[in-house]
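User: quick one, fold this
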Amino acid sequence: MVIDDLKDITLIEACKLYVRASITGTTCDCKDYDFLLANGPTHINSNNSYYMPYGDPKYDIKIKLLKVDPHTGLWINILKGGPGSMLGIHRHYDQVYGYTFKGAWGYKEHPEWLSRAGDVVHETPGSVHTLYIDENHGETEVLFFVWGALEFLDEFGNTIAIEDWRSILGKYVDYCEKNTLPIIDITYPKSKAPDVHFHNKDKVEL
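Assistant:
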């Protein structure tokens, strides 16, 4: 079946044709309608990005921005810091997941635990805390998946800065330009997933 004119078919109907073709092992050629296909896998080479200073200059905190998704507000980064480093008090507008590569870190407001290598931390929307790196475990690296914005606060609870995908991307571009580094587009996947055709189980010989 060939679809030559988008006017003759709705998006839902086209998707049904793709599903039916995949199940029966036939083909469905929707010419030039790549939007019907899911985005392909995105490979992120962390060596293509750079660590840049982040937060209060008196603390040795750096982040490496790996991906920014304007559609979902997600930004992925690796945070690195030396013993005793801190990231200011901040409130999360959405959830965050952190995976600790090495070292140890925690929140001043939660002395009951410390995240060490291999641990996962889930930060819930609306939570407020102060990230610190433990002084007894050397340099620490954490992979963070951040959705939404961070609202940085002073000691009185006043807002001093808001960080989201747009502002962090701007910091990345500014850092690259200032240091004459190549700017890599990390905003969204470019490839499309290939159409997958499954065998018709009635025709498969076992």
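User: anything notable?
Assistant: Helices lie at 11-24, 165-178.
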